[in-house]
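BUG: 3D viewer hangs when loading the predicted structure for this chain

Environment: internal workstation, default settings.
Expected: structure renders.
Actual: progress bar stalls at 90%.

Input used:
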Amino acid sequence: MGGRNLPFKVGDLVEARSFQIGFRGAWFRCKIREITKRQGRHVHLLEYYDFPDEKLKTIRLYQVPYPPLLRTRDKHKELMVRPQYPPIYNEKQMPNASEFSEVAVIVDNSWKVGDLVDWWSDGCYWCGNITQLLGDDKAQVELKPPPLGEGQTYDVFLKDVRPSLDWSLERGWTILCQEGESGRPCPRLMKPINQGVDGACPVPSDSAVSDETKSPRTTEMKNKCSPEETGGNNSTKCRALAQNPYTSESAIMELEEYINKINWLKRVLHYGISSPQPPQWEVVDVNPIP
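Structure tokens produced before the viewer hung:
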């Protein structure tokens, strides 16, 4: 794990966390001042720029929480540094999809009990979940339990929270969802065109689940390829889309659908609906592109 090449360099703005008691479960905004290797392990020298009076501090990229989560020799190590949090856009004010050059978080500010959030307080973001909506744009947030958090409960202003995200070397930024709530809506991640949209809570893989259940997008593409098409000139294309629905072409088609729907809604809001007839398209829920 210590030998992996991480996408960080000197001068990058990042977030770092600590397992020091009193600060567990908090992400601090930092700037990388130096990167070295000590005894085969990556060590970063960080400037905590929300704490200008603090001295530069070193941090190992992987650490074991104390007390460890697993009472075995093979203790799970947590990544302590990640890129800076993506920009956040309100769903009503998001720019054109073609303008996204990096990952962005799309929210509608309709928070619910159970939402996993980061709460800004005392110069850092504390990870927890909403346990109660109090009204007056306030909520009760319970921090992660030890050893990954401090475990206390606080009354907070909703303007000071953001959706909790996870970052890994393999998948980049992903949305965190409350355990057991995989079917409920989550904030969306808007990615550049070649990466797609991530707007659903991840569902763990299960060998007992059928292919259609795991990938409704595959089923949709198969249904679009009629018997006549599979015997004609489009057979190769249809089979390729059915076998691998997350191609560049299908990503572009899906993005165009989102853009068309947004443009239609804008026209309705501006001009109103001039005809009592329903629209000629229907919204179809599909799995986002991983």
